[in-house]
Write a structure and sequence with these properties.
The protein has about 220 residues and is α/β, with parallel strands linked by helices. It contains 5 helices and 11 strands, in the order E-E-E-E-E-H-E-E-H-E-H-E-H-E-H-E. Helices cover about 25% and strands about 35% of the residues. The protein folds into 2 domains: about 100 residues, Beta Barrel (Elongation Factor Tu (Ef-tu), domain 3); about 110 residues, 3-Layer(aba) Sandwich (Rossmann fold), CATH 3.40.50.80.
């Protein structure tokens, strides 16, 4: 059996959280202390190949989508039907083992201030986790989320029911996204999570609105 780097952890559960999106609840390794906004490197050998070697190990980064870490923590996985790892992860039933390294990342939330979380696509995982953590800590939170097929809608609607502002934006509506960012820019520390074009747009919008994008905490997913 191939020796996989990282700490082996059990997959506690897998649940669907949106179109082509699942959340994995993973066993928390010893001395694993992560904050919302951080990410892990997950390694696994997809399938049941007992003759696998190191070339068969697939590794991907995933940002935490749980507001805190206890006995378990959560990551959110967008499923690429042609991907090497995500379809296999989505088909797990719990009890399997994957390997994790981390946590990594300097973009964190320490439950100490009001926040504005701007998410594009897979950025919803860390955005909702930060918003939940802020709300639980008694701070104000805003979520601006652009996606035509949103995930974690139940959690976002729960936040709305509890007084958190949540703005859903259509995928191709840049004007609506810019208006939402500008409208809430001064309401807390700005976090932004998403792919390169999305976070670049967010940064430019902040500057155009009179803010300073250098003060925003932005995670570029590539």
């Amino acid at each position: 059996m191939v020796d996989i780097e990282g700490t082996p952890v059990a997959v506690e559960s897998v649940r669907e959280v949106g179109p082509d999106t699942v959340a994995l609840e993973l066993e928390t390794p010893d001395e694993f202390d992560a904050l919302p906004g951080q990410f892990v490197l997950l390694r696994a050998v997809p399938g049941d190949d007992t003759d696998a070697d190191e070339d068969d190990v697939v590794a991907r980064h995933y940002t935490l989508s749980s507001p805190s870490v206890g006995d378990t923590f959560e990551i959110t996985v967008g499923i690429d039907p042609e991907g090497d790892l995500s379809p296999w992860l989505a088909d797990l039933e719990g009890g399997e083992t994957v390997h994790v390294d981390g946590p990594f990342g300097e973009i964190t939330y320490e439950r100490d201030r009001d926040i504005v979380a701007v998410a594009g696509g897979p950025g919803v995982g860390p955005a909702v986790s930060i918003a939940e953590a802020a709300h639980e800590a008694g701070h104000e939170a805003v979520v601006v989320y652009q996606d035509d097929e949103p995930a974690h809608v139940d959690r976002l609607e729960n936040l709305e029911d509890e007084g958190v502002t949540v703005v859903f934006v259509d995928e191709d509506d840049g004007e609506e996204l810019a208006d939402a960012i500008e409208a809430h820019l001064e309401e807390g520390q700005v976090y932004a999570f998403g792919f390169h074009d999305f976070v670049t747009f967010v940064a430019e919008t902040i500057d155009d609105a009179g803010g300073d994008s250098d003060e925003a905490l932005i995670e570029n997913f590539g």
